[in-house]
Structures are given as C-alpha cells and as structure tokens.
Amino acid sequence: MARVQTAYVCQSCGSAHPKWSGRCDDCGAWNSLVEEQAAPPAGASARRTARGRAIALETLASVSAAPERRMTGVDEFDRVTGGGLVAGSALLLGGDPGVGKSTLILQALAAYARKKPSVVYVSGEEALDQVRLRAARMGLSQAPVQLGSATCVEDILATVASGPVPDILAVDSIQTLWTSALDAAPGTIAQVRTATHDLVRYAKASGTAVIFVGHVTKDGQIAGPKAVEHLVDAVLYFEGERGHHFRILRAVKNRFGATDEIGVFEMTGSGLEEVHNPSALFLGDRSGLSPGTAVFAGIEGTRPLLSEIQALVAPSSYGSPRRAVVGWDAGRLAMILAVLDARAGLGVSGRDIYLNVAGGLKIAEPAADLAAAAALISSHTGRALPKDCVVFGEIALSGDVRPAAQADARLKEAAKLGFSRALVPAGTKAEGIALERIADVGALIRLLDAT
Fold first, then answer.
1. Rounded to 5 degrees, what angle do the CA atoms 125, 126, 127 make?
2. What share of the chain is helix, strand, coil (3-state, %, to 5)?
3. Segments making up each domain of the chain, as ranges
4. How many Cβ atoms sit within 10 Å of the Cβ of residue 288?
5. Residues 310/355, Cβ–Cβ less than 8 Å
6. How confident is the model over 318-341, as pLDDT tens digits?
7. In this predicted structure, which of 220-234, 303-317, 408-422, 430-444 has the lowest mean pLDDT?
8. Reported pTM
9. What is the mean pLDDT of residues 246-262?
C-alpha cells in the first residue's frame, strides 16, 4: 500500500512546507501550518505525453455584446456591483461577524425573487428556521426564495442541477464548504479553494451568478487563501462599527465595474435600509459651532460625500505627546503636523492630538489634508470655522495646497446641502458657492485667525 504523502500548508498564504514549524517562512504568520494530504506529482512520462488543444485567437478589435446584468432591486448593492450581478459571475462578500452580511444577501435575493423567482439560498451555518425567522423580522417571508441547508459542494451542485438553472445562487459561507474529493477538514485552505473552484466552474458553465459569503480575519482580510479572491470576479467588503447604525459596502475588486464605489446602508430593527443621501447621515446634527471641526467634501467612487472631521489639540500630560486617529491614516496626520510646524510655525508638535472622522467613516483620499489641517488649527486657536463652510485640498510637504480631482462634484454636493462657502486650493473654479482659495498652510492659518 502506497504511503500517503502529506504537507504542512499555511492557512494564511497557502504555501506548503515539508515539516511543521511555528511560523510560516513565506508570510510570517504564527501557528498557521496545518497538515494536509499532498496531491501526488505527475510522472515525467505523463508530462511528456500530455498534449493540449489549440485555442482560437482573436484581435483587440473583436466586438462582443455587453454582459447581461441582473438588477436585484437594492440600489446601493447594484451600484457597488457595477449595475447588477453579471450572468456567470462569482462574487465574494466579506465582513466582520454580525455586521449584516447574511441580512444584506437575503434582502437582495428577496428583492430579485419578487421580480423573477429563480433564486437559491444555501446556508451552511444557520438552520433553515433561523433564516426564516430573520426573513419574518424583515418582512420577507412571502418572497419566493428557495432555501437549502448544506455544506458539501457535491450536494449543492446536485440540488441545483436537479431543477431549473437559477439566476442567482448564494452560499453562506465558504468557510463551511467541503468536498469529498479531499480528505482535509472543512475550513482548511485546500477545502476552501477546491470548493470555491467547483462552484465558480459551475457558474461559468451554467450562467448562474454565484454569491459567496466569507468571514474576515482579525486583520480585516477575508479568511482563507488569497487564491479565493483571484478565483472570483468581484470582492466586496461590508464594513461597520458596532457602535454605529450605518454600514458601508465597498468594492475592492470588480471585473465588471469600478472598484472605488461604496453603498451606504442603515441598520434598523427590520433589516438594512438604503441611504440615498449619505452626506446628511455622516454630518448629523451640526446646530452649534465648536472649534476643532471641519466639513470635508470628499469623493467615494462616483459619489460626492460630505463628512465631518473632528480634531482636539490638548496639553500633553506625559513625556511624549499622544496621537490618536480614528478613520484616517495616522501617518498622514504625522505629516500634516510636521508641515504645520515646519512651514507655518503652528507649534503643536508637543501637544496631544486626537483626530476623528464622525460616524465611523474611513477616509483614504489625500484631499482630506486641508480639512484635517483646518480642524487642527481651529482646535489650537479656539476659533470655530463657519457653519456653512466645506474644505478640501491636498497638502504637499512644501506647505503648498494642491488641487483635488472632481472639484465641481464636491462643491455641487455642498451647495445642495446648504453650504455657501468653501476653502479650496488655488485655481479652483465653481459657480453658486463662495470660494476662499488657499495657496499654502500659512494662508490657511491667517484666514482662520481672521475668522
């Protein structure tokens, strides 16, 4: 009897090792090596006799029809996917436990099933009664969604093959799937990769749009090998803080749409509600003027989004000043503080600095530099910015303020919400709103001192 060959496979990166060790040599993860059965290598004679078949080659000028889109009816979900699910595509949705992934998928499937009852939802984690209770709480009990409970890939494929081909197949979650072709335990890297590959192959062959739900690790990455993200056509992250009632759906990969779109939802007792005007949600109640706040006019994908940046400059009680940042890049804050001290002589490097993006929103674009600097200066001087003023612009290491992309869209969104003034980089042009053009951080300090 031939000896079964095994290898120790890292559950974080998928690299194989001949023997166990506490740390993966490739990715550096600790305690991530799991013993799995290794596939026998093909013999030299088999490699020599293997032959492929010729494929048809085409030119770049070849024209094909646009892919078929299946609109679910949930506008925010369809926006992020690029206009609906593409027939034969595979989509991976990840998020923290309890953020609302299953709720979002169930709502999207129910909305689509009301138009065309060709939807299958397979749960590998929850019993069918639990899914029905959630549907009843959200008022979706009458939606013609076909439910199933299974974790074996062969069972799932046999079930969908026994009836009409569904338009959408949702599987919750990929970490519970397993295939009888492997002896590895469910949830291991080999099982997740193989099960996902089998379902993706079914999607391409049948034209069914397959949705996978996946958990995330403590680092915020989707659990399982990166190969899973390469197999699918789109990867979405569902984000949200437990202390806040809104959720953000963000695309990080999309072969059929933009990767910088976001969808905003509000968690309620009856499920997720779409937020069509997220700027009003993130701004909240701004009835009073207080130093240290600035309204940033940002862009998320094609959508202008206004949010409030809050800053607090306080005397330091310890030997080294403290820096606390929520919703923004800490390295970016350190750079802005260095520029304000070196180029404008503000003198805040020895103080405690706290910076927060209201509502738990995460901002990544450099155009938030000027708004963060304005909030810091306002907190340091004790002078509040005007209530009807928005700010945006990128700050260079020289102290100059550089223009931001899509300035017209930012200012139109601000004017729509009742803002009448804007602190913008020099050279920005717009109508319907008064502009205060800022050339450098020194001009920003002088302007706020005169406010």
1. 130
2. 30, 25, 45
3. 6-40, 69-276, 284-450
4. 8
5. yes
6. 888 999 999 999 999 999 999 999
7. 220-234
8. 0.79
9. 89
Which amino acid type is present at position 331? G
SS (H, E, C) 190-212: HHHHHHHHHHHHHHHHHCCEEEE
Hey, do 69-276 and 284-450 end up sharing a CATH topology, with the first three levels equal?
no
Could you check whether the bond before residue 173 is cis, i.e. omega within 30 degrees of 0? yes
Q: Which CATH number fits domain 284-450: 3.30.420.40, 3.30.230.10, 3.40.47.10, 3.90.550.10?
A: 3.30.230.10
Each residue's pLDDT tens digit, 154-181: 999 999 999 999 999 999 988 888 998 8
| Residue 137 C-beta-side C-alpha neighbours within 13 Å | 14
Q: Which CATH superfamily is domain 69-276 in?
A: P-loop containing nucleotide triphosphate hydrolases (3.40.50.300)
Dihedral over alpha carbons 244, 245, 251, 257 (to 10 degrees)? -150
Tokens of 140: 């979706």
pLDDT of 437 above 50? yes
- Smallest CA-to-CA distance from 117 within 76, 91, 146, 147 is with 146
